[in-house]
Amino acid sequence: MQELLSQYETVKETQVKVWFKVGLESDFPENSGACIKYKTKQIAVYNFKRKAKWYACQNLCPHKMEMVLSLGMIGDKDGIPKVACPLHKKNFSLEDGSNLNGDDLKIATYPVKIENGIVYIGFTDKN
Amino acid sequence: MKKILVVGNGMVGFKFCEKFVEHQDNKGFKIMVFGEEPRPAYDRVHLSAFFEDQDAKALEMAPREWYEEHNIELITDERITAIHRSSKKITTTKDLHYKYDYLVLATGSAPFVPNIPGIEKRGVFVYRTIEDLEAILAFAKDLRSEQKGEIKAAVLGGGLLGLEAAKAVLDMGFEPHVVEFASKLMPRQLDTRASKVLQEKIESLGIHVHLSKATNRIMGEDAITGMEFGEYDKIDVDMLVVSAGIRPRDELARTCSLEMGTRGGIIVNNKMQTKDPEIYAIGEVALYNNMIYGLVAPGYDMAEVAINQILGNREIVMKDDIDMSTKLKLIGVDVASYGEPFMPVEKGYSIIYENKTKNLYKRINVSHDGKTLLGGILVGDASDYNMFHQIYLNGLPIPEDAEELILGSRGEGGSSFGSVADIPDAAQVCSCESVTKGDICCSITDGGCTNLGDVISKTKATTGCGGCKPMVVDLINETLKSLGKEVKETLCEHFSFNRQELYDLIKINKVKDYDEAINLFGEGDGCEVCKPALASIFATITMETPNRQVGIQDTNDRFLANIQRNGTYSVVPRIAGGEITPDKLIVIGEVAKKYDLYTKITGGQRIDLFGAQLNQLPLIWKELIDAGFESGHAYGKSLRTVKSCVGSTWCRYGMHESVTFAIDIENRYKGLRSPHKLKGGVSGCIRECAEARGKDFGLIAVEGGWNLYVCGNGGATPKHAQLLAEQLDEATVIKYLDRFLMYYIRTAGPLVRTAPWLEKLDGGIDYLKKIVIEDTLGIAEELELEMQGLVNKYECEWKQAIEDPNMSKRFKHFVNVDDTDDNLVFVPMRDQKMPKAWS
Hints:
- The complex is a heterodimer of chains A (127) and B (839).
- Chain A has 1 helix and 12 strands.
- Chain A has one helix spanning 2-6; strands spanning 18-24, 32-38, 41-48, 53-58, 60-61, 66-67, 73-77, 80-84, 91-93, 109-110, 112-115, 118-123.
- In chain A, the strands form 4 sheets. Chain A has a 4-stranded antiparallel sheet, with no helix packed on it. Chain A has a 3-stranded antiparallel sheet with strand order 1-12-11, with no helix packed on it. In chain A, strands 7-8-9 form a 3-stranded antiparallel sheet, with no helix packed on it.
- Chain A is globular and about 40 Å long.
- Chain B is an alpha/beta fold.
- Chain B has 6 domains: 2-110 and 247-310, FAD/NAD(P)-binding domain (3-Layer(bba) Sandwich), CATH 3.50.50.60; 124-244, FAD/NAD(P)-binding domain (3-Layer(bba) Sandwich), CATH 3.50.50.60; 325-418, 2-Layer Sandwich (Enolase-like, domain 1), CATH 3.30.390; 424-487, BFD-like [2Fe-2S]-binding domain (Arc Repressor Mutant, subunit A), CATH 1.10.10; 499-559, no CATH class; 641-804, Sulfite Reductase Hemoprotein, domain 1.
- Chain B is 32% helix and 20% strand.
- Chain B is built from 27 helices and 38 strands.
- A 5-stranded parallel sheet of chain B has the order 3-2-1-7-19.
- In chain B, helix 12 (437-445) packs across helix 14 and helix 22 (730-747) crosses helix 25 (780-792).
- Mean pLDDT of chain B is 89; it is low at 409-418.
- Classes of the chains: A mainly beta (127), B alpha/beta (839).
- The A-B interface holds A 1, 4, 22-23, 27-32, 34-37, 42, 45, 48, 50-51, 64-68, 71-79, 81-82, 84, 86-87, 89, 91, 104 and B 53, 57, 60, 63, 493-494, 515, 518, 524-528, 530-532, 550-552, 554-556, 558-559, 563, 565-567, 809-810, 813-817, 819, 821, 823, 838-839.
C-alpha cells in the first residue's frame, strides 16, 4: 500500500519535464472532477469553471487508500480551493495538498496547463 | 537554561509537554522526553480503534515534527533504568547519562497479570500498547489460517478495559468470553442492577459473560486451549487477553528510594512532588491521597499542577477531591457514573428507574433533604450525563421532586433541567481539557470568538472525548444572545442563510441553478455542505433529478448509486412495498451473476447489488429497466422504501391490505427529494410486523381505518414515531402525508431527519397536528398542491441517464483511456466476493 502512495509526489510548475495531454477541456465536467491515467498513476483533474482555474492531484485518498478523490465534491474553504473525499469527507487543499481538517494526511498536487482548449498535466517523469 | 527530563511519553507525559510549551513563562527551560515504546505518544483511550483500521498514525497525539518544532527532544525506544538523586542524573538502557534540574516521572502503569499457572502460554496477551495489539492480530491471523469453525477468545477481567478488549475480540470475528472474578461487570463503577442491565445488553450482542470465576489454571500444551475455574468448570478458548487491572510503573522510584505506597505508586503531595522536591510524579504512577487515578483527566490536571510548580506558580495545587465521573460507550452501550455512584444510606437516598425491555437503567443519589444531587449511574442512554455531571459538580438546585431528573417533568413540555446559564463560571464543562464555562464565555465576550470553530481553536474544548459538545454549543448560543448578537443558523461559510430561507429565496426568485444562487445569495466556490443542500432544494421545488445539475450532487447522487468502501458502487432497484414477482427476482439474479455482484437483502425489503464499477452502472440499469425495474433512490436523500407486512391478503390476523397500501404510498412519493432520507412502513395490524413506528411515517391498521404515526427512525438514536391521527381512511392518510411531508421538506435543516426536526419544532407534535389536521396556518391546500405537482413530474433518473448521449462520459473511470480501475481487489467470502480489507 505504501508503494501505491509513494509514487505520488507533488510536482511544481518549475519542475515539469513532461506536459502530458489528457484531453479536451470539454471532456471534463464543469465545477467538478474527473480522473485520468498517466502510466501507473491515477490523477484527479478539477475544472473550477467559476474562476476559470484548473487543479490536479492524486486520485488516491491517503486516508483509506482508495482511488476516489476525483469523485469528490469541490469548492473552497476560506478561499482555498479544495476537494472533499467522497468516502469520509476529508478536505484537501488543491493548492498545496494539505489536509484542511488538521490531520496529518497530505496529497500530491500537479500543475495543469490549458492551451488551445487542450488540457495538459505536468510531470517530472521520474518514474 | 534549566533542564526538565520527562520520563514516559504516554498521554500524560505528552500533555505535560503540550501544556508546557503553551505556558507564557516557559523561557529558560529545555525539555527532553523519554519513551520506551518505539513511537511517539498515542491516544491509548481509543486504542481499540486500531483494530478497525490498524492506523497507528491516526492515534498519535502529535507527530515527531511537533516535538522538533517546539524544541523538545524526544527519545523513543529507550527506557530509563536508574535515577541518581545525589548527582541529579538518570541512566538509560543504552547506558547513557543525562543530567536534570527537574525530573518528571510519567511512567504510567502496566497491565496487572495475575500469577495463574500456565499464564505464560502462547496465545495469552495483555492489552495496553499498539505492540500488544499487533501481537494479538498476528496470532489471530495464524489461528484463522489453521482452524476452521468458530474461534473462541476470552478476556480476563470484566472492568472497563476488559470490556473494551471484548469488543475488539468481537470485531475480530471471534466468539468473545468475558471472565470476571467479581460477581458483576464493572464492579468499581456500577451497582449490581446497573451491571445486570449492561450484562444483558452485551450478552444480546453475542458476548458470553462468566462471573464469580477465579481461574485456577490455563490449559494447553504450548498454546492455550482453555481456562479452568474448578474441577468440573472449564471453558475452551483459543486465545486469552488479560485485562485484570493496572499496576503503577514505579520501579524507577525504587532505584532512588523515593517514598512509595504499600501497594505501589509513588507518593506525591498536592504539588505533585515526590519526597525529593525536584522529582515530580504525574498520571497513573502517582499515588495521591492514597489513590491511583486511572483516568486521563486527573492525569492532565496533575501535569498542569507540576508545570506551575516548576515555573514558580506555587499557589496552583491539586484539588483534594478528584472527580472520577466518567461516561463512555462500551460495545455500543452508553455507560456513565458520576459523583458517588453507590449510596451509603446515612448520606442520602436513591431513585432508580429500570426498563429491562429497553436495557435502560438510571439511578440518582440525592441528599436526605432532597436538595443536592450526590451522584448516580446511567446505563443504556447517557445523554443526560453532561447535565447531571454539572449539577453534581456545581451543586446546582434540582427539582423539588427529584425524580423528575430521570423521569422527566410531568407537566406540559418544558425541561426539568435549568438552563446552561445557571451554571457558575468556574464550572468545568470540558473535563478532558479542563475548560470552564468562564473560559468559553470569555473567549466570546473578550476573545473575539464568534462561533463554535473559533471557540474550539481558542479553548480546545470538545477536542478530547467530545462529550461536552452539545453543552458548549448551548453556551456559545446563550453568550452570543446575551451580547445582543443574532444567533444565526447558516448553511456554511458560503451562504449566510439557513435552509428554509434559501428554499424561499430560490422559489420566490425563480432561481434556475446553483451558480445563479451562489451569485445572488452567496460567495466563493461552494462546498460539500451547500452544494447537496441546494441540490435538494432545487429538487423539492421543481422535481429535477440529479441529472440536471450533476456537479452539485453528492457523489452518490452524481452517479445514481451508492459508493462503497473501495470506491465501487452498489445498485438497488425499487421493489415497492417489498413485493416482487419470481420473474423479476430471476432477472436480478441474472444481472448479479453476469456482472459478478455481491447480493444482499437490505433492511428495507429490497435487494442490493454490490461491487459495480462506474462504467458498468449504465449497462446494469439498462438490463434492469428492460425488465421493468426503475431506480430505488437508495443513494439519495429521498424516499427510500415503504416497508410492509403481508397484511390481510394472506395473514390470518391482518385487518387491512397493508401491502397494497404500502405499494401505493411508495409509488406516490418515489423520487421525492427531502432534507434527509425518508422511510415509511405499513402494518396490517397492531402486531406491527412492518416496524412502521420506527419510520419517518408509519401506518398501522386498526378497526375502522389506519392510525398515522410520524417522525420515528431507527439508526443511532432510535425514536418511535408519534401518533398524528387515528382511524383514517386511505384518502385522508394521503392528504395528511402530503401536508406533513411537504411541511417537513420546506422547513427542516439540511440532513435533519423528521424525529430531530419534530424535537426542535416549537410546540412539538401538538403544533404539527394543528398544521396538518386543523390547518391553522391556512397552508394545507398549498402543501397538497405542491406535493401533487412533484408527484406528477416524477421520472426515473436511471432511464434519463442512459438516454443522455453524454452519459458514457460521466460513467467512465478515466477521461483519457478506456481502462478501468486496476487497483480494485476483491477476495472471496461465503461463495461471493468482498473488497479486500483496508490495510
